[in-house]
Amino acid sequence: MKKSTLFQILAVTISVGLAGAACAQTTSTSSGQAWPTKPVRVIVPFGAGGGTDIQARLLAKNFYESMGQTFVIENRAGAGGIIGAELAVHSPADGSTILFTTASLAVNVTLYKSRIKFDPIKDLAPVSWISSTPLVLVVHPSVPAKSVKELVALARKTGGLNAGSNGAGTTSHLSIEMLKQATGVKLQHIPYKGGGPAMGAMVSGEVDMAFATGPVASAQLKAGKIRALAVTTAKKSSTFPELPTMASIYPGLESDNWYAMFFPAGTPKPIVDKLNVEIVKALKSKIFLDFMPREALDAVASTPVELEANFKREIARYAKIIQAGNIKVD
User: Fold this and answer.
1) What pTM was computed for the model?
2) How far from 20 is each of 12, 49, 58, 66, 163, CA to CA, in Å?
């Protein structure tokens, strides 16, 4: 995303917050209670300017325009998203705090089992699966493989390939592990501190392959600096329709970066349902219809029940991968 676009979003968020403080309205829920009656805190467990943060700010803008109340973004980064999630869990269950997080939460349940002091399934109330972006299996142009099968054959023939990731324990790392477990080939995992550094290593030829997030991969693919072989989502990506899915080649090999909203457990159902309706409405707005394809995102807008089922499924799936690969983080 261009810096000017980010600054515009931040500026809109600030102006919306100021306007909302001066002119708050309320929206009735089916129970007859008014929500929101005061500013709502949206906890983003990652730093400002990233994909999670920008989506949260766009949603906050739409919520204000629809409900007339301020939604304040609070960035609480650290421990792979655990710090922000824990803060949300211990907040009042009255609709005043929302957690906007990613697939990392499903991974962290197992990966950081000894550090998490709460139960994400019991202590969070699902609202909606907002969006999803694929991980893209990419290779450096010097790698002769033109398909996933050719890449696996090359790894067998050469005795292994170097595979970069966005960091230990990330979905890009676990995708590498899934490919290793599905094929038995040797892939040397090389973790980097984020998608940017990992892509830099990919472009420079420091690593042979990587599972890169859609937005990061898109720009380099257009520039011809890397080559894409497949996507990791269960269905074909609208951003990369020409690419096959990994699951069509190795059934069960699925991984994506999804984004979702939760309330603290115990939040009244009418409030949960109201926010879900507002999310569906927001994702149909022009700003999101323009934003999503530009950032390699697919809108989902699930029900709370659908998010809960997906969350449980993701936790169980990543747990098996982590345990089978004996993956640990410092």
Assistant:
1) 0.80
2) 12, 22, 15, 11, 47
